[in-house]
Structure formats: C-alpha cells, structure tokens
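Both lines are quoted verbatim for reference:

——
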Amino acid sequence: MSDRVTSEFWVAAYLRRVRIEGAFAVLRRRGAPEAGAIAVVVVRRDRLAALFLQAPQSAFDTARPGDRLFVPAYPDVFVEERRVDEKLAREIDFDPDLWIVDVEDRDGRSFLDLASAPG
C-alpha cells in the first residue's frame, strides 16, 4: 500500500500553501480524484510562464515513495504562455485525468518539491 495522498487532497493542500505564501492560485482543471497526474503553471510578473509536471517514477527516492516531485517542462523553465497552453493541450489528450493548477507569483515561485537533476 502506498503512503501517497490522493491527488485531490494534494491539490487542496497545495492551493492553501500558495495562498499562505502570498501568491494567487486557482484550480483550472479537476482530474481523477485518487491518482490523476498534476500539472502546475506558474506565471510571473513579466507574463512568462513555467510548466511543472510530475516527475517520472524513476526520480523518486525509494526512502520516500509517497513524495510528489515535479520537473520543469522546458529547459529554460519560463517560456511564453502560448507554449505552455499548447503543451497542456497535448498532455490532456494523453491523460484526460490531468489536474491543472495555475499560480500567479510576481517572482515566479512554484512552491513545489522539485526532483534533483541527475548527476
């Protein structure tokens, strides 16, 4: 049995955390309550956006299998919002159970646990 919380619970807690930190967050798309994948879009003051997707299972620390880790979808992290929207449309086509959370933070903070880069 996994110690991982449901996607629905994780998203609710994440929305609260972002708001407590003084940023704005809203649920754009509700996915599967139990185990839907989660995507987070962060928009900063210059209107560039970052898309964070859940890290592949291989990125998880075996000592902490319940963690949700994220990776940026683009090497430059922040890109034009149009590119993020296009990628999200492809992700939804691939996984219709995808959750999408939008965050507006003037400094572009994600408030996510990011997977370490290999090496």
The chain is about 25% helix and 25% strand. The chain has a mean pLDDT of 89.
